[in-house]
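INFO batch 0412 | record 1 of 1 | parsing
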Amino acid sequence: MSAKAQINHELIPEHTKLSENEVKALLKKFNITIREIPKILINDPAIANLNVKEGDIIKISRKSRTAGEIVFYRGVIKE
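INFO prediction complete | emitting tokens
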């Protein structure tokens, strides 16, 4: 099950930590490795309460008036 960040501000998009199964499915779907995913720092305030570790993948869902919902993925790194 995924964990969601609880930061409630209209300018902060929803951040969700992917489960191991979700990570496997994502990497297989796009035929990529975790090294190919853009990065997010482990100390980023948006993921502070997600209990993340290096190597986790975060799903970022942004609302858009023109495109609906846009999803981005970021790999957690220490620095």
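INFO post-check: The first strand starts at residue 3 and ends at 4.
INFO record closed
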